[in-house]
Each structure stands twice: as structure tokens, then as C-alpha cells.
Design brief:
357 residues, alpha/beta, Inosine-uridine Nucleoside N-ribohydrolase, Chain A, eight-stranded mixed beta sheet, 10 strands, 15% strand, Ribosylpyrimidine nucleosidase, I/U_nuclsd_hydro_CS
Length: 357
Amino acid sequence: MTRRIILDCDPGHDDAIAMLLAHGNPDVELAAVTTVAGNAGIEAVTRNALAVARIAGITGVPFAAGAGRPLVRSVEYAPDIHGDSGLDGPVLPEPTFDVDPRGAVQLIIDTVMASEPGEITLVPTGALTNIALAARIEPRIVPRVREVVLMGGGVHVGNWNATSEFNIVIDPEAAHIVFNESWPLTMVGLDVTHQALATAEVRERIAAVGTRPAVFVGELLDFFGATYLASQGFASPPVHDPVAVAYVIDPSVLEVVKAPLDVELAGTLTLGMTVADLRRPAPRTARPRCRCASTSVASGISWSTRSHRSATPRSEASLPTQGPSHPTQGPSHPTQGLPARSPQLLPQEATPAPPSP
């Protein structure tokens, strides 16, 4: 059954690739795209989202601009990774349609409330400000959402500092709200996305497709790869956000464990750290006042060889690459792949340990 999702994003190079994957895969329907400040300011990331929509040929999907700052804290951007525009590198076309006047938070609420219970999956790939505001303004959406699959956090590693991942630490209060709601939630964090590398072999396969989106992805990865090498020492850039979309398409791509999950709000050195209780046997209950009994953590990529489902893409032109993945076996990982017709974004080389910024 096709999964209807709201992609809440801050494009962002990997957000753009996530949008292409969500639009191109027949097992996912974009019900809406909403933007939030993060990789750049809200005006920039919203324009970027509309430009990606034009490149991908996305029509008939409402786009809306959301929160321009965190709930409590000062705004932070990521120009060292994404450039001043949030999507430096490619020359972006002018958008062909305008944003929905309702704004992101109201669009999320309206879409969930107008859909059947359990129909909408929220896929945030940026700060969780919009999702937190929607849950607070209209609490009735919480039991109606099928699940939240977010890219953010990390159990064992950070990237904005030693312990915290960017999407979470720039608005930890919003993350605390989202993690502590009663909806099912899966955190796709750095523990797995740092393995999702756009290697030279992957890039060659994308380039061979020859479509406009494939060329666009190559231009994205040119810039993204250079900044990741310079700032965090990755020889091939980790393409974080598409991993969350890939999990919605096919949950078997990731190993996931149930675990109480929360966000540190008071630590002098650990603000924004995502804390998962992975003790086994699993604790009977989460800590007092924590409503995180329905939270899960992506703990690894499923490396075992799997058969791929046959699928015909919604639009060949919207896909960065085609066909099932058949990567070569790396020094420490068996053969693996993503869902049929989706970009192969899993690693074929050892992941370096990035230095703290």
C-alpha cells in the first residue's frame, strides 16, 4: 500500500535528494512538503524546496513555509556544510508555483485531520519545530498520525558537537516535545546515516542515468562532498535524509530496536544529546513522566542480501538512479541494497570518525 507522507525539511543537499526519492518511488505519495529553518533561513530553504520541485516535476503537492526560528533558542544555520543559500553548488531554477498561504504548521494539521487515522506518516528531516507546534496547537493529530520517522540525533555520535546532532540541537525543546508524544516514532540518526555514503561508484551509477534530476544530484554531491571532506573528514559524504525516506518505503533496510528515547535539555556539555536506553533486557517502563514507550531507534543498516520488490517508478525523470542496488562487498560489510528503483546510498567503504566541530 502506498504510504502518504508529509516531508518536513530544510533543503539542504540531502533534503533535496530525499525529496527526489519520495516523489519518484511508487510506494510513497507526497501529501505535502513543509519547510523549517535549519540549514539556512526559512526564505532560503523554502525557495530551495520549490526549486527542487521544479527540477523533479512535482506538481499538485502543497508546499508551505514554516518556523523561521526555534521555539526558545537563537537560530543557528549550517553554512559550512550547505553554503549560505542552504543549497550551494547547482544553479537553481525559478519556482513555478507559490507556497500554500496556510503555512507549514496549519498545513500539517489540516492534512492529518482531513485524512483517515493512520494514513499520514510524518518524515521530518530538519529541526522539529513545525512538528512540535502542530502537536501542541492541535493535539488531536497525535493519535491520527501513523508514525513519525525522523532524521536526527545519534545514540553514540554527534556532528554539531561531541554529543549532539544538528537537527536536534538547534531546537532541543521541539525535539523533546516530539519525542514525548504518544505517536510511534523512529529516530534515524547518525549511527546509521554516517554509513550511507555517496561513494564514487554510487555517483557513477547516478550520472549514468543522464536525466536532469541525475545531473542535479551530481551537482549537489560535488558541493556536499567537498564541504564534508573539509569540515568533517569524510572521503565520501553521508547522505542522511534519504535514509529516513528509504525506511518508510521499506523498513527492512534498517535494523530498529524499541527503546525509551529523550533529549537532554540542561546539560552544559550535552545539550541536544539524544539519550536512548538500550539496556537489555529492556526496561519495563520509561523514566517517570516520559511518554516514550512507543519510540524506536535505528541501530544499524540491514546488510544481508535481500530480494528487491519489482516496482515501476512514478516518473523516471524524477529519479536520480534506477534499478536495484548491487554494491560490492566492502572490507567489513556484506552486500546490501536499498528498495528497488531508489538511489543506492549505502556505504562501500569504512566510515571515518568525524572530528568534533
